[in-house]
Amino acid sequence: MSDARAAARAIDALRRGWPIAIDGITLLAVETADPGRLAAFDTEGAAGILISSGRAATLKLANQVEAADPDSPVLVERAPWIDFPAATALADPQLDLATPLKGPYRTLHLPDARPASAALRLARIAGLLPAFFLGGTAAPEVALTAADIDAHEDADRLAIATRARLPVAGAEDAEIVAFRSPESADEHVALLIGQPNGAPPLVRLHSECLTGDVLGSLKCDCGPQLHAAIHAIADSGWGILLYLRQEGRGIGLVNKLRAYRLQDQGFDTVDANTRLGFAIDARDFGVAARMLALLGQDAVRLLTNNPAKVAGLEAAGIAVAERVPHKLPPNPHNAQYLATKRDRTGHQL
Ligand SMILES: Nc1nc2c(ncn2[C@@H]2O[C@H](COP(=O)(O)OP(=O)(O)OP(=O)(O)O)[C@@H](O)[C@H]2O)c(=O)[nH]1
Ligand SMILES: [Zn+2]
């Protein structure tokens, strides 16, 4: 039996800098470690460092080139000179330009990639850099399995928590519905606008963007897209805005801001994610499909320029009767970002 609570405890442990074990492999997150914690974790000084193949490719490590998936794990041998600061430089691309890397690094064969992959995934869910000290001798704070992480992320666990009337600017006839799953901290919401009329609703999947939605960032198009979606749905008579807590395309606020820092150094949004060690888009649109199903909808007209959203919904059993473009005028700060979406992530712009 998988145990989603074990995954929730492990997320908490990682953020506090405590060791965990996944399927028997002990791990300490590099981001929340310090020299003392590392010494306590790794009393024999032999642990390796686990990073993703995207990060390994950035560091030009050997034997990672064949990995097509930037999320797949790579184990770096802990050479004697790799002390805590050197491990941090391996994990954190913000230091790449300031700290020319020493090397050479040697990669080790990972006999079983599944727990290592699960660890990288758990780091992303915890909002941490995907990098671990692996194989220490310390007793773990929490022991879990890769299946426990799957259970924690299972969209079928989402349920409606409550609902209420919520008039908003642009749509006075609206109702908010909140969703929760038992162990996850994410609280997704849907805004139901207008009254069902028998036709598939006009639906927008909006991924959380604190900088764009709340602060009015000009680096992306999220804020204007959010407000334009509410107006478009209201004008269409009936539809649903899903506000998904998938900040930074699923990597979390702090990691997105790290990506922004890399963008300040000249990398685009795709390369910044890869240098950090994440997939280009880490979102799971199964959550959106589950929310629509709980709202009684199995077919939608989808407001998006992103074919991956159409594919993600359809794969999860929601028919997309029509894709409705959702394009807004660029500004001088986001023109390059939009060009990257068009040229590198398949957005139809
Ligand atoms: N990792 C990362 N996330 C970003 C960046 N800029 C915006 N985001 C996030 O991207 C999400 C919005 O997704 P987009 O890819 O811009 O657009 P989309 O929603 O996939 O596509 P459309 O439906 O066509 O708008 C939000 O969660 C933002 O926080 C960035 O540079 N890096
Ligand atoms: Zn944004």
Automatic annotation (TrEMBL):
InterPro entries: GTP_cyclohydro_II, RibA, RibA-like_sf
NCBIfam families assigned to the protein according to its UniProt record, in alphabetical order: PRK00393.1, ribA
Catalytic activity from the UniProt record: GTP + 4 H2O = 2,5-diamino-6-hydroxy-4-(5-phosphoribosylamino)-pyrimidine + formate + 2 phosphate + 3 H(+)
Occurrences of domain GTP cyclohydrolase II (ranges): 163-325
UniProt-listed PANTHER family: 3,4-DIHYDROXY-2-BUTANONE 4-PHOSPHATE SYNTHASE (PTHR21327:SF18), GTP CYCLOHYDROLASE II-RELATED (PTHR21327)
HAMAP family reported for this sequence: RibA
EC number of the protein: 3.5.4.25
Cofactor entry: Zn(2+)
Entry's family note: In the N-terminal section; belongs to the DHBP synthase family.
Signal peptide feature range: none
Group of enzyme by EC: hydrolase
Entry annotation: catalytic residues: D281 (proton acceptor), R283 (nucleophile)
Pfam families, sorted: GTP_cyclohydro2 (PF00925)
GO molecular function: GTP binding; GTP cyclohydrolase II activity; zinc ion binding
UniProt keywords, alphabetically: GTP-binding, Hydrolase, Metal-binding, Nucleotide-binding, Riboflavin biosynthesis, Zinc
UniProt region (Disordered), positions on chain: 329-349
Record's protein name: GTP cyclohydrolase-2
Residues that bind GTP: R204, L205, H206, S207, E208, Q225, E247, G248, R249, T269, T304, K309
Cofactor descriptive note: Binds 1 zinc ion per subunit.
Residues reported in the UniProt entry to bind Zn(2+): C209, C220, C222
One GO biological process term: riboflavin biosynthetic process
Record organism: Sphingomonas carotinifaciens
